[in-house]
Design goal:
294 residues, Alpha-Beta Plaits, 2 domains
Length: 294
């Protein structure tokens, strides 16, 4: 019985060593994948915030409905515009009644000071102050327009926060990529370095370099594959947990992004493991004799 246990112990040690290597690769890939997907959702959220910011175009009181619709259609043709909503005098009066109470215009003797208006939402990529001001100047120059209500301070604040956050995310991603490459390289190098005596023995009996490299490269591919799959499972679990806690809306519109990210992580794990396995084997094949036992 004791001999049977001894015969299994090397296999157990080999399994644990391979599993720990794959797990190390998985944890590093998980960090990169999680930060990348988190950055993607921050970008989506920032675009939604930008596109919710609007400015209002107030028409002249004597403008006809046909002129309003013509100006609306003209604004919608602009490539920077996401959508334009027309609000009639009746709609604006009804909205103000909700805020100030029914019949709030009685104090004015029945006079209605409201004019028809257009609420313009721009696309997120067009949310630049210079571009918006140029667009507003074009609209204000039209004789049908009385004024334009625009809060440039909000746009400036949103853009400042967005660009600062973008720089921070890029720096974090670059640091994580560097850590990812370094840790995977060290993990695979240490794993193969333990086989340096086996590599030298194969060299002494005349094995070709390609024959020596092949099993290590195949093992590197499998380690990268398992590491990528484990990373995908961890990312999926964490993202689902975060979405459930934050009551995030349906993720199905982003299914393609998640599928691409999942395959990308697996491919990244395989490619990095294969490259580092190759160079680790080559280094150990070229070791000097006095370094074999160090």
């Amino acid at each position: 019985m004791s001999e049977k246990k001894r015969s299994k112990s090397p296999k157990t040690r080999l399994f644990l060593a391979n599993f720990s290597t794959a797990l190390s690769i998985a944890l590093v890939l998980f960090m990169v994948a999680f930060i990348s997907l988190f950055s993607f959702h921050i970008w989506i959220l920032s675009n939604e915030i930008k596109e919710n910011v609007s400015f209002t175009v107030y028409m002249n009181s004597d403008i006809s409905l046909e002129d309003c619709m013509r100006l609306k259609a003209e604004a919608e043709k602009n490539p920077a515009v996401k959508n334009v909503e027309y609000h009639s005098v009746e709609e604006i009066t009804a909205m103000m009644d909700k805020d100030f109470g029914q019949g709030h215009l009685d104090v004015l003797g029945g006079y209605n000071p409201y004019n028809p208006s257009l609420e313009v939402h721009l696309k997120a990529q067009a949310m630049k102050v210079k571009q918006i001001k140029q667009f507003i100047r074009t609209i204000e120059a039209k004789p049908e327009v009385e004024s334009v209500d625009y809060r440039d301070d909000i746009i400036n604040k949103i853009n400042t926060v967005y660009y600062n956050a973008s720089y921070l995310v890029v720096i974090i991603l670059l640091c994580l990529v560097f850590i990812c490459v370094t840790l995977i390289n060290h993990t695979i190098t240490l794993t193969i370095r333990n086989k340096k005596l086996l590599i030298r023995s194969m060299q002494l009996i005349g094995a070709k370099a390609s024959y020596i490299r092949r099993p290590f490269l195949i093992k590197g591919i499998w380690l990268g594959l398992f590491g990528g799959v484990i990373a995908d499972v961890l990312v999926a679990g964490v993202m689902l947990w975060i979405c459930s806690v934050l009551n995030y809306p349906d993720l199905r519109p982003f299914a393609n992004v998640y599928i691409i990210a999942a395959f990308g992580i697996i491919v990244l794990g395989i490619v990095l493991s294969l490259i580092f396995s190759y160079f680790a084997v080559v280094r150990n094949m070229n070791l000097k004799n006095y370094k074999l036992y160090n």
